[in-house]
Amino acid sequence: MFIGEYQHTLDSKGRIIIPSKFRAELGEVFVMTKGLDNCLFVYPKSEWSILEEKLKQLPLTNRDARAFVRFFFSGACECELDKQGRVLIPPNLREHSRLEKDVVIIGVSTRIEIWSKEEWDTYNNDDSLSYDSIAEKMAELGI
Question: Distance between alpha carbon 53 and the CA centroid of its chain, in Å?
Answer without folding.
Answer: 18
